């Protein structure tokens, strides 16, 4: 076409090409980003979990007594597990981080 512009496209910086499996075709893959909440003190997160535990216990006030304890135990475990899976301590997973490491900002 006369007068048409030439356009050059490039991949965004967070996308890379990886080889296909069977047909050898290339597919785009997004680099994995760490979306966890970044923290610097495992001890501080543990203290926050303990503070929030009071709120979880208050939720149990509305439950019938015969199911209260197991439901609250399950809710507390679920909450703590979710927090631990979604925070990083100085870039490390919860299980890998030292209990008393703190880096000042």
TrEMBL record:
GO biological process, one term: mitotic sister chromatid segregation
InterPro entries xref list: Mis14/Nsl1
Gene Ontology CC annotation, any one: MIS12/MIND type complex
UniProt name for this protein: Kinetochore-associated protein NSL1
Organism for this UniProt entry: Eschrichtius robustus
